[in-house]
Amino acid sequence: MTTEGSVYQRKDGRWVAQYRDAKDKVRYIYRKSKGEARKALREALKDRDEGYVPADKLTVGLYLDGWMEDRRNTVSGRTWRVQGSLLRNRVKPHIGDERLCRLTPADVRAMYRRLLSASLTPSTVGNVHVIVKQALRDAVRDKYMRSNPLDDVKPPKQARKEKQVLTPDEVRRLLDAVKGERFEGVYVLGATLGLRIGEILALRYQDVDLTAGTIRIEHTLYPQGGRPGRCQ
Asked: 51 near 119, Cβ under 8 Å?
């Protein structure tokens, strides 16, 4: 066999493209016709010469596991847990067993349809789209695949919902109802400044300047394995 590979027909009628990869390992590609085998061989040799890593046995699920492990110390703990949960519970059950190098836009669209039929909101599926697209963009960069199938996939359209806000009279009644309660300050800050609960609970004495009448919002509190955690 030459470095350019060869194409031959097996006794069972299938055509085989045989070549050596960048690590000098012999690889075989099976196709139904001689023309398909030649085309597959040309693509394989092109990938080899351009440095693409053979991913014929690497599944989407295995790649995502490794990708998330590489991100463990590059994103916040909360982001890592949320993204890991999305991939583990929403993505891997549907396309985790697909081979990375053969994942198609149709596979991803089918996954989105199944997620929506399982009553997930378009917003949640949109979050799945963002994280998977980022993961596969890195796979293309690292030459595990030639192109990102999500470049040809659009996330579900999200209907714009008008936010429900309290009227001034409702705010007054709310603050009257919690007057004297232990967490009255939480309600006051939330209602008058529009702060999130996590931002309010993360406030420290040094964040409040009573003389200047200002509050610095620099942290938020979020659940971390059943215990509160703080992030900037």
From this structure: no
Q: Which residues contact 140 (CB under 8 A, 6 or more apart)?
A: 146, 147, 148
7 φ/ψ angles, rounded to the nearest 5 degrees:
-125, 130
Gap between the Cα atoms of 144 and 65, Å rounded: 14
Residues 6+ apart with CB under 8 A from 152: 105
Beta carbons of 120 and 83 less than 8 angstroms apart? no
Dump pLDDT digits (tens) for 6-56: 999 998 899 999 998 877 878 888 899 999 999 989 988 888 888 766 656
pLDDT over 70 percentage in the chain:
91
Please tell me the distance from the alpha carbon of residue 50 to that of residue 22, in angstroms, as a whole number: 10
Q: Which residues pair with 223 in a beta bridge?
A: 228
Q: pTM of the prediction?
A: 0.60
Cα maximum dimension of the chain? 89
